[in-house]
Design goal:
By secondary structure, the chain is mainly β. The longest helix is centred in the N-terminal third of the chain and has 11 residues.
Length: 181
């Protein structure tokens, strides 16, 4: 009898109360970055990353993001810059090959977009990072977002590279994910 009552209660809950789990389609998803070196802008991307997404605009408290980034896959279309990025002064890929972004707190903005308030771990340092994004429901769903990080907060390019006149501290991160349920 108790099982039937519990089952009836579960079936009566609206489906929107449960956030959906999504897997990233790697071939259709991108994670990019943009910065400025000696006054010149450059863009790049991470060729290897994965994202596990649980999201429902009607159930933000149940939503979660978990993104893992292979730092050795950084590609800015400049071999010398890419080698420097992967080196000890920047990403230190030999010691710390992966970055991770996790978010468990979400806010709805007035313009229909959302903010994921999460934490980025890079070079063993964890700092808060907010990702502003647009959610496009469907099968597949799309997530298009942008965040700004301060590289020096993560000791990326410290020491001789810490001069913000040579390398801007602000780095823009852009993502476009295609997500399958």
């Amino acid at each position: 009898m108790m099982r039937r009552v519990l089952l009836a209660l579960l079936l009566a809950l609206p489906l929107s109360a449960f956030a959906a789990d999504y897997r990233m389609d790697a071939a259709q998803s991108q994670l990019g970055f943009a910065g400025t070196v000696q006054g010149e802008s450059f863009e790049g991307r991470f060729a290897a990353f994965s994202a596990d997404i649980r999201f429902d605009p009607e159930s933000l408290s149940e939503s979660r993001f978990d993104v893992r980034i292979d730092l050795a896959s950084a590609d800015s279309q400049n071999e010398e810059r890419d080698s420097t990025l992967k080196g000890e002064e920047f990403f230190a890929v030999e010691r710390l090959p992966q970055a991770n972004y996790r978010a468990e707190h979400f806010r709805r903005l007035d313009d229909g977009r959302f903010v994921a308030d999460g934490e980025l771990t890079l070079r063993g340092i964890t700092r808060p990072v907010s990702l502003r994004f647009r959610w496009i429901p469907g099968n597949p769903a799309r997530l298009q977002g942008e965040a700004e990080i301060k590289r020096l907060d993560f000791a990326v390019g410290g020491g001789d590279w810490a001069d913000e006149d040579a390398i801007a501290n602000a780095v823009r991160v852009v993502t476009s994910l295609t997500l399958n349920p």
